[in-house]
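In this section we walk through a basic example: taking a raw amino acid sequence and producing a predicted 3D structure, encoded as discrete structure tokens. The instruction is simple. Fold the sequence below.
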Amino acid sequence: MLWIVERIEGQIALCETEDGLLELPLGQLPAGTVPGSCLRVQDGVYFLDEEETNRRRKRNHAAAQALFRRRRANEPEQE
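The resulting token sequence is shown next.
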């Protein structure tokens, strides 16, 4: 199962799952866990899925760039 860290509030990581939000103690998660990190659990141990995290970050960056390009193309010229 894939969990995505939506945000961190104090010592709690709020993770997006297929079933909604899940709160996990930050101390139980791997070092380097930040918002946007993708986590997997195996045998009760959480680990960062860095490949999935990077894939999602690249996809989101490309989508944001496309939006900015489209926005600039639609802006009227300034005199």
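Looking at the output, two observations stand out. The mean pLDDT is 88. Residues 2-74 form a domain with the SH3 type barrels. fold (CATH 2.30.30). In the next section we compare this with other chains.
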